[in-house]
Amino acid sequence: MRTITEFFGMNLKSAAEKIPALADEATKAAQEAMKAEGKTDEEITAGLPTAAKAALDAKIGETFKLEGEKLAMFAAALEVMKDARGTVKRILVQAKAKDDETPPSGAKEIDGKFYIVEGFPEAQKAPAREERGGKFGGKGGKGGRGDKRGGRGGDRGGRPPRGAAGEGSSEGRAPRAPRAPVEPYKGPNRIALKGSAPASGGETPTT
Model confidence over 136-167: pLDDT tens digits? Predict the structure, then answer.
């Protein structure tokens, strides 16, 4: 298969939005032209679809600067885009390089050419995380802050609660040794009355 041309989805979408207004203008122009030719109402009604399509193709070519085979492929790509699902990235137009070639899967054939629609990949939604489980699982977040929290005296082997043997009670604790008696101070009296000379020899000064 050989690629002839391609049309980007953004350009096709912009053109598709303008087509309805161009179609109305083309239909009115075709009616006026047929009346000017002296056609009857019956002739106008019978020949209007063909005349309107020709007028629309002319307006599309004039608006988007297309002509000839490129204009025909552009109009065909617009028709293919109508049936496309999702957001169209581009439409490739291919033709057989050899008669025995197999056309691409899903391609639509129009006038001997194959139109392949390429879309943007859909964004995959991330799976919802379990209820506050984090990567360690459980409802307790990191480390499982649940019933088995392992605080003081719990499963983590922390300090035993007060009142347990070994701490917080008299059981298991060695008795304290008695303090030695404190002897009274026998040194010199360093406190003197205001205005008196300091005492010597440890005697109390007289007044």
Answer: 555 555 554 545 555 454 455 556 555 555 44
Cα 103 to Cα 115: distance, rounded to the nearest angstrom: 10
Query: CB-hemisphere CA count at 13 Å for 121?
Result: 3
Model-level pTM? 0.53
Contact 144, 138 (CB under 8 A): yes
CB burial class (10 A; 0-12, 13-18, 19+) of residue 31?
Answer: middle
Partners of 110 in the β-ladder: 113
| Domain segments of the chain as ranges | 2-119
- Each residue of 46-71: pLDDT tens digit? 999 999 999 998 999 999 999 999 99
Structure-block tokens of residue 118: 């390429």
